Amino acid sequence: MKRLILALLALAAPFAAFLGVSEYRLTRVPATQLAAKKVLLARQQAAVEVLVLGSSHAESGILPAELGAPAFNLAGPGQTLYYDRALLDKLQRRLPALKLVILPVSFFSLESQLDEGPERWRGYYYQYEWGLPHRDWHLAWHVRNYSAYFCYGQEIGLRNILRGRIRDATADFDAWGGWTNRPPPPGGFNADGSPAELSASARVALQRHHSRMKPEHIPRNTQLIEAMARQLQRQGIRLVLVTLPVAQAYSDGMNAAAYQRMQAALRQLAARHGLTWLNYTGDRRFTDADFWDADHLNLAGAQKFSRLLRDDLAAGPPPTPRR
Questions:
Q1: Does 2-315 carry CATH code 3.40.190.10?
Q2: How far apart are CA 156 and CA 25, in angstroms?
Q3: pTM of the predicted structure, to 2 decimals
């Protein structure tokens, strides 16, 4: 038995050493988007007056530099309303100048949960980087919640970790979490601006979104928005709901019943809590040339949208949905 224990220790020692080196190197550099935005926000938190939450639609589509006030974009891929609320709870006290929270609500937002889709692994990032609890408690004890190597080491790559070549992800963003320092994905689906490319992108995105949507999630997600509204109103902070524009190929393919459920829920929320909902779905001011795929604005489209959003926020009343 003693020999067996010694043999196991001999085998474990190299891995323990590797794991220690990996943890050290991965925690010295903000290697992921979520880690990068955490670092950037910490530098700006005293000045932030506008906080942008939401999924990748807002991450690529809202440029903080265009909003007319010190704004930070904390949106990210796959970020659902559960994590929007958790981040707001975590951060509000650290943002003494906060006056406005922009909460993007996409077509799929009210009927989706991150931990029920193929990107549930992102939940480990939120727990590891921000200490945010999982919605599904079954994920709470996984080693990925507590180890940088197990959380995202595979994404960085073993060779990069061993050589200490870990890229600083803050280089992908400006100082306020905007993506203007990062080029859009190479060409995207809309490489040549053709309707055919966007139609192909729309089919892929809609299949992915429709497959994750469940009407039974609407009550809980609307409760999360209501909780944010009450919390912010007590502090004298404005909450605005925003639905970003999508290409016509995407809006034409949206499940009509699901879109009606979304509109009904958001209109009720807005009326009940005195909120503004700005719905740009089908807005004809945006053309195919404004998108790098069917549901994400490119840089030119993001600049256009961010300036329109700035003006509409200042004007007050929401634009009429164009559909």
A1: no
A2: 11
A3: 0.90
Q: Is the pLDDT of residue 187 over 60?
A: no
Cβ contact 77:37 at 8 Å: no
Pull the structure tokens for residue 204: 């892929």
Distance of CA 194 to the CA centre of its chain: 27
> Mean pLDDT of all residues in the chain?
89
Q: Which of 206, 210, 212, 207 is nearest to 117 (CA)?
A: 212
Parse the chain into domains and list their residue ranges: 2-315
**Stated length of the chain:** 323
- pLDDT tops 70 at residue 49: yes
What are the angstrom distances between the C-alpha of 202 and each of 43, 195, 208?
37, 10, 10
CA angle (77, 82, 87) in 5-degree steps: 75
34-50 burial by CB neighbour count: b if 16+ within 10 A, else e?
bbbbbebbeebbeebbb
Strands 276-279 and 291-293: unpaired
Pairing mode of beta strands 296-297, 291-293:
antiparallel
- Paired strand residues for 51: 72, 101
